[in-house]
């Protein structure tokens, strides 16, 4: 396996990250959803995370996206990205590391379980919801 560096993103990475976001959108059959632009050397994967809060558990980290270019999959890069996010979570005092996966993405689901993640749909019956567009405006009375 080629040497892989897992690090926090820097401003100069924006073009590469955008390229990977587009690839992820294409992989998830959601290319029409990408509304951002810019371009730029060779990044082969990324993990986009942010902090959230649990009523009972306090500060958590949420991995919004994880993507590794297809030709680099199977080399442990995804696992390294996830481990780096876990490291950040612990360093920042988080009690949980959360993420979601599409139901058809068995490779990702298997990886997360193999790394010790608990499937909350199976274990606790959680369903995810979202409001957007007109529904959100209507909800807000705007």
Would you mind describing this structure in some detail?
The protein is an alpha+beta fold and 142 residues long. It has 5 helices and 3 strands; from the N terminus they run H-E-E-H-E-H-H-H. The chain has helices at residues 14-27, 77-91, 106-114, 120-123, 133-140; strands at residues 45-54, 58-68, 96-99. A 3-stranded mixed β-sheet has the order 1-2-3. The radius of gyration is 17 Å and the shape is globular. The mean pLDDT is 89.
Q: Spans of 5+ residues with little confidence (pLDDT < 50)?
A: none
Round the Cα radius of gyration to an integer and report it.
17 Å
Helix and strand sequence: HEEHEHHH
Shape: globular
Q: Give the terminus-to-terminus CA distance.
A: 53 Å
Total strand segments: 3
Largest sheet: 3 strands, mixed
**Quaternary organisation:** single chain
**Category from helices, strands and their pairing:** alpha+beta
- With strands numbered from the N-terminus, the spatial order across the biggest sheet is 1-2-3
Q: What share of residues is helical?
A: 25-40%
Number of helices: 5
β-strand amount: 15-25%
- Arithmetic mean of pLDDT: 89
What is the structure about, briefly put?
This protein is an alpha+beta fold. It contains five helices and three strands; from the N terminus they run αββαβααα. Strand 2 (58-68), helix 2 and strand 3 form a beta-alpha-beta unit.
Give the topology, please.
Layout: H1 14-27, E1 45-54, E2 58-68, H2 77-91, E3 96-99, H3 106-114, H4 120-123, H5 133-140
Parallel strand pairs: 2-3
Antiparallel strand pairs: 1-2
């Amino acid at each position: 396996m080629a040497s892989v560096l897992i690090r926090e993103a820097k401003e100069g990475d924006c073009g590469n990250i955008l390229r990977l976001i587009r690839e992820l959108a294409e992989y998830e059959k959601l290319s029409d959803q990408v509304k951002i632009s810019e371009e730029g050397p060779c990044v082969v994967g990324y993990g986009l995370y942010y902090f959230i809060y649990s009523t009972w558990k306090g500060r958590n980290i949420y991995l919004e996206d994880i993507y590794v270019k297809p030709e680099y999959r199977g080399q442990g890069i995804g696992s390294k990205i996830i481990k780096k996010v876990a490291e950040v979570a612990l360093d920042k005092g988080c009690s949980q590391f959360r993420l979601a996966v599409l139901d058809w993405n068995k490779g990702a689901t298997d990886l997360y379980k193999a790394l010790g993640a608990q499937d909350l749909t199976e274990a606790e019956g959680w369903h995810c919801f979202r409001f957007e567009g007109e529904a959100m405006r209507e909800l807000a009375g705007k």
